[in-house]
Amino acid sequence: MEEVEMSLIYMNARCREILNILLSSDSYITLAQIAEIMKVSKRSIYYDMCRINEWLNSYGIPELETVRKKGIFINVDTKERINVIVEGGEAEENYVFSPMERIGIIICSTIYSPEPVYIDQLTDYCMVSRNTVFNDLRVVMNQLQDYGLKLEYESKKGYTVQGDTLKLRAIYLRNFYQLKQLFQSGLLKFFNQEQILDNLSILKEIETALHTKYVDGVLLSIAALLPLLGRKGANIYLPDFRQNKIEKTREWGLVERYFGNLETIEKSYLCLHLLGARTITAPYDFFEERPNQSVYELTKALVTEFEKIACVIFENREELERALFMHLNSSLYRFEYGIQIGNSLLDDVIKEYPNIFELTKLACRYLEQMVGLPISDDEVAYLALHFGAHLQIPQKEKDTLRILLICVHGISTGNMLKREIQRLLPYGEIVGVMAATDSVNVQKICDLVISTVKINCIVPAIVVHPILTDMDRKLILNHQLISGKQKIHESNAVFNIVKKYIKKEDYEEVKADLEAYLEGFMKKLSGKSDKEGLLAFLNHQTVRIVDKQVTWQEAIRLAGGCLVESGDIEKCFLENIISHIYYYGPYMAITDDVMLAHTKPEEGVNHLAVSMAIFKEPVVFSGSRTVRIIFVLAAEDQEGHLKVLKDIMRIIEVFSHVEELEKKETVEDALDYLRKIIDTR
User: Where is the PRD domain (predicted)?
Assistant: First the structure.
């Protein structure tokens, strides 16, 4: 028992810093002085001192006493004893919960507990002061409100979460998945860890019996959910549910065997999680009976929303819609039943494709309105992979290097990997994307395999992460089958640019010099360019403020005229925008006051460029639609402008930003304000 107690006494980062302040002081120091140094409340320091004293006690060192009107002072002998522990590495790992971790802890602990939770319990779980917890509770209430839930407080009893049971469990699962590493580290003291780990062992037996594989971390989340099943007052309703069909599944038989004490409806609910949380390779049959038309219309609307936000047109839209339809057909059931699937690739997607992820998140606001629930970042990442995989890459020359891709992380990840390899190796030919189990006699169809898992095959194979990292790209480009072709490809590209300036008799000599220079020179190692944002394009030439009243046609020409003068666009680009607005109406308005004027790259774009005009008098379009700010975006392709769009969305997502921008009287003031908004995010 003492061993368990000891494991809960540790020094987080803030406590360690406070202790260092005390150790370095040669005189008394008050709690107020420490609070000022640490930039936290005096109450927080009080709680930290309690934890420091617990830690000292665990090593047999007397508590640090606070002397009235003086503060705390550590004598020389005590300092030496503490330093021996710290320098000897005996002190435990530093950890302080982040604000978002505290939000998750409050939500999970309040839902997990069968009894109301007191504020003092929450301060203990989060290791912060009461004031900090009260501030966190405001954020908790907003998150619960998104799910239609309420945080209720009863005097002398504590806090509970009230609302629909399915939604309550959904938000619990979502937050637990984010906290799972803290749970595994033993830092979440409110859980019955032994019970949850026992549940996990049973679920892993079920996984083995089903000969299947669940998404990473999902079984642990279900294990933590099981104590909630069958609780008094936990009435659940499963919409569009067929009991007779679920009882025919293998999952039902295993749930009956291991969790037979649950009520029938709870066993069905658990089965739905086991059916819906498998590794996403294709939707499971049980989730395919939703009326196809409603899912199809939702899919089409979501693609249209992304196209509008990202200023792109998918050439292979039907293929994208089919892939999204398959994904959404099962995802919509998961939303309804509160099944939360984590995404082990989330951090990689955000890191490698931040612009696509942010734009997908904006498009998902439409989906949230349709389903009546927030769409988690895990789901956004899955959808972002679908959208990103179907963004068109300019066609380049091909060579005879045949490449087979093997991916076990689902359709969307496989397609995204294919697109990345096509962009990285434009001279290669992707002969297919398949699962490892299907990779038999691959030497007959390819010269090289790029795989997300280790495989045995005759042809060379490169193992990479499902979401390509910079090291993966370097590994690919340095492979012996590729490095030579890469050098030739780069050399030919440069030679085609310069050959018009040299004599024909010098062609071979110049080509040889270029190849020598490019030997080992891989400037495109990352396979991705850090595309420039909005501030790289806006300056005193591309921003203007218009004081007079103008027609909407004049407004478009005034907003984009500077880009015509600079040669970034042809005059016809602006005329094509005007023609589209005549025909379709002011569909390019992205808020009540802001328009993003754009059209296809082939309709007059020479270079990627952006301009902005602020109109002091409202610009009136058909249907009495008015705008005060017009951005003109000239995109060369379907990806280079995404960071620009991300910055524009940062501006318009807060209405006060638009209001303040409209008030600026000079170009310099407008640019300064834009820098303040974008650079501080």
Answer: 290-397
